[in-house]
Amino acid sequence: MDDRVDNCHVTLRDFELSDVDDFMVWATDGKVANRFCSWEPYKSREQAELYIKSVVISHPWFKAICVHGKPVGSISISRGDGTASCRAEIGYALASNWWGKGIATQAVRLALSTAFRDLPNLERIEGLVEPENLASQRVLEKAGFVKEGLLCKYLIMKGRTRDFYIYRFCCSDLHI
């Protein structure tokens, strides 16, 4: 199946505090947060403002996924420390009313096209996806990630130990 971005101009940009209302659309949506995200749905605008101020704006690579200039999701690349600084983990969330349109795949592709330049000496980006999250697996696969294997009982999330597939994209996979 082809990407279905149908007339949607997808871009990535830095978040601004003025994006809080758009951020709240997906951050308060239980369909987005409850099942596969590590965070719970946000309860207040103040909680979202604090998160944007204290985490998002200061993060080295945390972007708004925009459609026609309006934020509809977020994508981040979080680099490892010390001996793991050659790799990073990708994470993304998209407002549920934009699911199934190819926007997340396009956002991941855009992230890959700039992250290796923005983050010096980065060689590998990993994505961790629960086996039940078929949509996110498809996003990574369509963006060129390779499934490396299953990490059994890998993380405790929302009180339950969970398995994750690990996907990887290496800088040598990038065709510029």
From TrEMBL:
Domain (N-acetyltransferase): residue spans on this chain: 10-171
Q: Which domain of life is it from?
A: Eukaryota
Q: Which residues form a coiled coil?
A: none
User: Which GO molecular function, any one, fits this protein according to its record?
Assistant: acyltransferase activity, transferring groups other than amino-acyl groups
Concerning CDD domains, the annotation shows: NAT_SF
Quote any Pfam family the record assigns: Acetyltransf_3
Cited PANTHER family: ACYL-COA N-ACYLTRANSFERASES (NAT) SUPERFAMILY PROTEIN
Which protein, by its recorded name, is this?
A: N-acetyltransferase domain-containing protein
The organism named in the record is: Araucaria cunninghamii
